[in-house]
Amino acid sequence: MTVLLETKLPLPLWRRGKVRDVYDLGDKLLVVATDRISALDVVLPCGIPDKGKVLNQLSAFWFEKTAHIVPNHFVKAVDDLGALRDYHLGDCPDYVVGRSMIVRKTKPIPIECVVRGYLFGSAWAEYKATGATGNIHLPPDMQEGQELHQPLFTPTTKSETEHDRPLNDKDVKQLGMEHLMRELEEKSLLIYHYAQDYAKTKGIIIADTKLEFGLANGELILIDELLTPDSSRFWDASQYEVGHSQPCLDKQPVRDWLLASGWHEESPVPMLPQEVIEGTSKRYREAYSKLTT
Fold it and tell me: Suppose 249 and one of 61, 140, 189, 234 were both cysteines; which one would form an S-S bond, judging by CB atoms 3.0 to 4.6 Å apart?
């Protein structure tokens, strides 16, 4: 099975991210989701079959489903090459179909808007060390994977050159974002509550998620991806138990394997074993199927 790690389109390249290649359409952008996978802030040397299609189509699903709550940048999905007819593209490769969307241009907000509904991952590690997560103190004697009394907004920095870290007041001031933080929190929590309630009807717990926003004509709107296995932790609700790691439908096993491999930042990023690649592809497809059918 082939994977798409890099795209080459007859368009100006706007930006190449860890997973997505973004092209300039003039008044809009074409976002192509590749099969690249990142973990622990690095891009791995292998791809995950069908991953880009899942990310693209699941994001489109959520953008359409939540547009009445918070506006977003989504214009339309590229379900066939005819969707690009208005942009006079001649030899556009077939691989853009199913893994691409046309979106509005925005001014991205350089903040990762993280919402946590359960104590897990880096939040659990921070809690064990300090009794808090994201500078928010929590009750004593909580357990790994425990549901929080209410979801927490724990934003982080967003950087291409260093690890993301919890956002502090100094960061907010330096970014000039004081006037937007309350709105970012309110809109992030609205999306999380809605998605969590919906996902539970499909047998999935959304333990946490990461949202990104941009400004379009002065309006704060959702951008990038939305509620995918890359940006969220999806747990199987039927097997949920407090006190340990949970059966998941996201990329947590990739993180776990990378940490257990002995890799450190100064060494080359190792290739994932075939069973990890295949298992990740299967989980992503299952998450999409459960949430959209």
Answer: 234
Phi, psi of 67 (to 5 degrees): -60, -25
Residue with tokens 């299967």: 282
User: What pLDDT, on a 0 to 100 scale, did the predictor assign at position 110?
Assistant: 95
Q: Domain limits at 240?
A: 108-261
- Cβ neighbors of 290 (< 8 A, separation 6 or more) are 202, 203, 204, 249
How does residue 254 score in pLDDT terms, banded at 50, 70 and 90?
Answer: very high
pLDDT in tens, 131-187: 999 889 999 999 999 999 999 999 999 876 667 888 999 999 999 999 999 999 999
Distance CA 233, CA 213 (A): 19
Question: Per residue, what are the HEC states of 198-250?
Answer: HHHCCCEEEEEEEEEEEEECCEEEEECCCCCCCCEEEEEHHHCCCCCCCCECC
User: In terms of domains, do 200 and 129 share one?
Assistant: yes
At 223, the amino acid letter reads I
